[in-house]
Amino acid sequence: MENDMMTVLLVQPGKHPVEITIPHTLKELQKQVGGTIEIVYPWPDRSVGLVCHDEGKLLGLPLNRALPEIGDAIAGDFLLCGLCDTEDGGSLCSLPPEQMSYMKQHFREPHFFIESAEGNDYFRVTPKVYDNLMGKPKK
Q1: Nearest partner of 14 among 65, 58, 69, 60, judged by Cα
Q2: Could you tell me if 34 and 51 are in contact, meaning their C-beta atoms sit under 8 angstroms apart?
Q3: Which of 3, 78, 82, 135 could bond 93 through an S-S bridge, CB–CB 3.0 to 4.6 Å?
């Protein structure tokens, strides 16, 4: 990865997504998700890569957002990055403005997960409701 900056979307459990600019390094990606990374490509028709902790579920990180596109959910913080063509194939890069706008809206509301006989179900809530459901003190 080049050592320049890239603008990505940070999605954390219980919060609205936030646009951030970070160094374009593996170390920074790992810092943002709290460990070693995995890149998931749930939207083949969009040039977006989802960077998450590769052992998030095994470590018991809180479920963050459901991805019905792949029939799964992401645990812990994740980043949405652009995908750019390079001489050696492809690379992560800044999320293009039109994708940033779409993904901010797509992930705007936090997901609250409940266990059912069929597995995990979820519903969309506001950050305040999420905190109340998780038993976090009111601010």
Answers
A1: 65
A2: no
A3: 82
